[in-house]
Every structure is written in structure tokens, then in C-alpha cells.
Write a structure and sequence with these properties.
Elements (H helix, E strand, L loop, with lengths): L3 E2 L4 E7 L3 E5 L5 E6 L5 E2 L2 E2 L1 H12 L8 E7 L2 E7 L4 E2 L8 H16 L13 E3 L5 E3 L11 H9 L13 H35 L1
Parallel strand pairs: 1-7
Antiparallel strand pairs: 2-3, 3-4, 4-8, 5-6, 7-8, 9-10, 10-11
Amino acid sequence: MTPAESTNYRTEKVLRPGMTTLAVDAAGARVVLKRLPDDCVWRGQLHPSVKQRLERLRELPSTAFAQLIGVEQHAEGMVIVSRYVEGLKLDEVPIEGKPAVLDELWRVTTSVHRLGMVHGAISAGNVIIDKAGAVHLIDPSPLLHDDPAIDLAALEKLGWAPITESVVVAPGIEDRHRRRRSLISAVALTLAAICVAWATVVYLSE
């Protein structure tokens, strides 16, 4: 992903001074402009790992994350341009509706984990519930994250409680766990068979 030159935007609202702005592009679409932290830039360009992550985010076949449009070079630095998602933030949801929203947030988050992607910065301020009730994650960390436990720990801080002890992980990690469980089961069955055979021999020898 190569940063493009700055596009003309009309500022609608400054969300975080010097960092995040709600704006309108030339086509009339509302977008969010977020300045990248300095540690995401290396020698005047996107850090290679940040570039790789942003490319994956833009190509992610999921509506869970707000659509990443691109990266632009502005006077104040490099800026991520994302589609604006209108709706309620998680901390604006009535208390009686939060459990259902948290369950849906868990489903959305783990569906992204199955695609091998981790958000890395889940908080009450970057979970949006749109008018249709769909849950969206905004502002994923531009830094490279590959541990789903980061997101699951964030969900628990928001009040979500796991129903079981099972954890959904990225496909590669999940495959390793599955192979390990299969190996443990095979060893257990083999040991059980040896014990039965040994008991039979002892019984017959008596």
C-alpha cells in the first residue's frame, strides 16, 4: 500500500485534536481521517510491517472492520482513510442491551480471527452498533498483531464472559492445537490397550 497525495476533504468534526477527524470527501461520502503514530513511519515511508498489515486489512473479506480506503500523505503526516460507520458506541448502549451486543461482538471478533486477523485495540470507543443492529469494529491497530488472546482479553474487560473454556484462534494455531489433541488421544488409547493386554496376561497366568 503506497501512500497517495492528500485529497480535498471538508472537515465535519474533529474527533481527537491532531489525531482523528470526521470529514466528507469529494463524492460526498463521510470518512474518518486518522493520523498514523510516528512509530508506524520509517524513513519517510510506511514501516514494512505496518504496510503489510494495512494491505491485509484492506483486502479482508469481512464487513466486521470499517472499510479501509487507503493511506494518504497529509501536511501533518501519514493518514489512514476509512469509511465512517454511523451508529452507537458500545458505551452508549443501554445496560439491558449490552449482554446481547457483547455476545455479537465476540462472534464478530472470532470470525475475524478465523481469517487470521487480530484487531489489537478493542475498546468501548471503537465498537459501533449500526441502525440495523450489526456490530462493527473500527480503528484496528496498525501494528502487527497475531495473538487472538489480545482481543479476547479486551472483550473480557468490556464485560464479556466466555461460556466455555474453548478459545477460537487463527487457523495455523488452531491446526497445531488440533494435531496436539489428536496425538494426545492416540497416546492415551495406546496406553489403555497396553494396560488391558497386561491385565489379561496377569489374569491368565493365575
